[in-house]
Amino acid sequence: MKILIKNGRIIDPASGTDNVADLLIENGLVTGINKDISREKTEKVIDATGKVVCPGFIDLHVHLREPGFEGKETIESGCKAAAAGGFTSICPMPNTNPAADCLPVIDFIKNTATKVSLIRVLPIAAITKGRKGQELSPMGELAEAGVVGFSDDGDYVSSSSLLLNALLYSRTFDLPIMEHCEDACLAEGGLMNEGLLACRLGLKGITNATEEIAVNRDIALAKESGGRLHLCHISTAGSVELVRQAKAAGIRVSAEVTPHHLTLTEAEVNGYNTSAKVNPPLRTQTDIEALIAGLKDGTIDAIATDHAPHTRNDKLCEFGLAANGISGLETALASLMGLVHSGKLSLSLLIEKLTLGPQQVLGEKYQNIGNLKAGSCADVVIFDPDEEWTVDTAKFFSKGKNTPLEGRKLKGRVKTTIACGQIVYQQA
Predict the structure, then answer these.
(1) Residue 416 is part of a domain; what is its CATH number?
(2) Is 371 a member of any domain?
(3) CA pair distance 213, 39, nearest whole angstrom
């Protein structure tokens, strides 16, 4: 199919492009960016006047729940939600049931995605068997099957010797070990960020040190091994500084941050709001400012949603019993655009952290995505940076309606998503 996108503001951080032009897609590839490209023999013309045209977003951290928890989400519903959010490549975490720690489960995820979705699904495999932290998964077989990394997400690999071996072994495939950094002993029983608000609500707090101790250990092991370490959803100012120092020392470490940790504080928990219960917990404005600074100076490589859909009953309960997580694929861009409209982030940097940044974490094998260079895969999102809309979870494609943004007015909306040259979402 030949698609011509006319008069959009094309922003491609990979090539430094930022100007109003046309973009031509042919046979699933980007074939040209120029002024006034002819409409001749074009099956589909999209007028993008006043809108931004950029590479499709890449999400390094989502939970599709299938197999095992299809009541929360399925691969099909999660991919539809991703497309509606402008994401054309997503990396599902392995905390399924059974865990994605072996070839049959990885094959199931990949085969199901091929049948039900037009966007790219790049599975992450478990570091350890059953995500139990006791024995390494068959990493070699999983790497050959095409996984893009290894993680026990939701669980910290507490054994330093085991994680060191994982980092050493992963060098063979040049794949990242993607760590959920949380000292389990310190975090035990914790429900929200430690501070005055936690005291007032009578909830046990989770200190910043819970994350920072784990980050510090993992960086030390990355230095020792020479392996690639990727830190999932960092949330504290201290973690940002530890990553900054590690990068300056030449250690192979990358990091991601979520939209909710960039835009929401612990104040969301007021009233025992279970929709704001997330792990790591929402922190303070001071932490948010440090995270933004980390994006600006390159300390933090990518923004990833940590999309964590849950059923209604998972959240409609006592705060201490409620599941952790926010359903974030369909609100990610709009919530982050608040940082652009307030002048805290430039639009080009935001797009970079949703495209080029995560692509670089994935590595050279995926250099044909996350950019609009001629010959690259035609993954494109068109969005209106100024359109206001109100979050209505009843209209979510995701089964997960759990978000503290319900009913809030946001500014910035995805209009069209194209994956591999095919239109996979258009706003009604």
Answers:
(1) 2.30.40.10
(2) no
(3) 58
C-alpha separations of 153 from 104, 179, 238, 387, 415 in Å: 19, 7, 21, 35, 32
Residues 293 and 402 in one domain: no
Domain that holds residue 238: 58-366
Which contiguous run of DSSP H or E holds residue 144?
A: helix 139-144
Q: What is the pTM of this model?
A: 0.98
The domain total for the chain is 2
pLDDT tens for the chain, residues 1 to 428: 899 999 999 999 999 999 999 999 999 999 999 999 998 888 899 999 999 999 999 999 999 999 999 999 999 999 999 999 999 999 999 999 999 999 999 999 999 999 999 999 999 999 999 999 999 999 999 999 999 999 999 999 999 999 999 999 999 999 999 999 999 999 999 999 999 999 999 999 999 999 999 999 999 999 999 999 999 999 999 999 999 999 999 999 999 999 999 999 999 999 999 999 999 999 999 999 999 999 999 999 999 999 999 999 999 999 999 999 999 999 999 999 999 999 999 999 999 999 999 999 999 999 999 999 999 999 999 999 999 999 999 999 999 999 999 999 999 999 999 999 999 999 98
Residues labelled catalytic: 306
